[in-house]
Amino acid sequence: MSTAKKTVKAASVIMIITLLSKVFGFLRDMALASQFGTSVSMDAYNMATVIPMILFAAVTASIATTVVPIFTEYLQKEGKQKAFDFINNLLGVVLISTVILTFLGFIFAPYIVKFVAPAFTGEKFELTVKLTTILLPTMVLIAASNIFTGALQAMEHFTVPAMIGIPYNIIVITVAILYGSKFGITIVAYSIIIATFIQALMQLPVLYKLGYKFKLRVNFKDEGVKKVIVLAMPVLIGTGIQVINVYVDRVIASFLPDGSIAALNYANRLNMFALGIFSTAIATVIYPVLSKHSVSENKEGFLKGLNLAVNAILYVLIPVSVGAMVLRVPIIKVLFERGAFDERSTYLTSIALFYFSIGMTAYGLRDVLSRSFYSMKDTKTPMINGAMAVLLNIVLNLILVRYLQLGGLALSTSIAAIFTTFLLFTSLKKKIGRIGGKSMFMSFLRAMFASIIMGITVHFVYNNLIIRMPSDRMIYEAIALFITILIGAVIYSAIVLISDKSALSYFKRVIRFVNSKLVRN
After folding, report:
1. Which CA distances in Å does 69 have to 154, 223, 288, 427, 438?
2. Hey, is 379 helix, strand or coil?
3. What is the pTM of this model?
4. How far is the C-alpha of 6 from the C-alpha of 461, rounded, in Å?
5. What average pLDDT does the structure give for the chain?
6. What does the pLDDT look like over 291-310, one tens digit per residue?
7. What is the DSSP annotation of 355-421?
8. I need a labelling partner for 388 at 20 to 30 A (CA). Which of 13, 67, 88, 518 fits?
């Protein structure tokens, strides 16, 4: 078998693994929805998962952001051993910091819950406090996992980081189905600790194979740690502002009818599912590539990689977002409506999904653009632009929730994402000059035109199919939905290929690019 064929075969396996990971994540949400629906327990669980993020998100986000460019610099300029020494020292410093924060979280958990969810009282409040104390230690493990992931990605090894979500989700799904009805949502929280530990552990064999050896080092004066701190400070501030935004969302949602927080979470999961399959994968793969071009001062290679990623996201996520808006109700019914997840749950989740979908493409673009700045060791610009967007989001939350309630929170998030993306494009052009904006804009117009035609078509196709299907079984709705999505995909692809003669060769280049960067093991 030729090298090219081996590469394509290996890349196909990796893409399947990535998709499987996202599917299992979706199955996890379906299992939780079936067991707990949009109940008080689910509201408490979703709020409890937010609280560790409030305490640790700034630390973990800064790690994920800064490890890749700094590790890449060590790798290219001083060799692999020096790069691994940096990883060991960073690991020691971060573990000590997160353990201290965890103990503080245990002590002040009731006060934190009261601050984050002031409307929670009685049983709902007590359950949220209990779940919070259970989930706090996971952030120590997530911090370690992020460091390992950053090192692997910097060396362009993406397979294992793509796989770690599969065992995580299998554990949570199994526990939720087998023990959820008996022990309640608490057992799910305990399963997350085990699942997170396995996520971190899975990555070590590959790192050891690449030459890594664990040595506990704690040196706050280490040059690499100093670089992390310098680069991380704007990220810490930016993430802190984002956390405030999440806090405001949850506080406002806690005053809405029961189930609103859970519905918001389910809709966001659906939104992130599409992002995770494609845009997050592209952003992850492009990040070390842009970092290398930045270190070697290869502007042409940098712009080529950036344009490839941006245009690919436009062509894929615009039709997905339009499709999600048009088919939101049948999608939610087929995926979630069973057990405790009833018609009211579907209705609430569909409202949030519609408004989240408006900003889906902007989210994908924001990830790529932010990482283009991070690859140039500029963490300040994304922080400033993100802060402006968060302020806008908070203001819009307070205004739109009066008129759209749950939908207002989701719409505010989408508008803020679009605003952030616009600011990042503007800032990037000021920083490096020409960025190929005309090509990006033409891709946007073609994708939008094809998506609108597709959206109108799938609306009529689904409505005509569903009235011809028996109404007593969910399987028929699933069949109608699948046929509709397939027809929509064919129509969209045909219009894009007709309107852009170079689209086929363009997608081949994207596949070759992903192949060359993913297949490194």
Report:
1. 7, 14, 7, 20, 29
2. coil
3. 0.68
4. 40
5. 80
6. 777 777 777 778 887 887 88
7. HHHHTHHHHHHHHHHHHHHHHTT--HHHHHHHHHHHHHHHHHHHHHHHHHTHHHHHHHHHHHHHHHH
8. 67
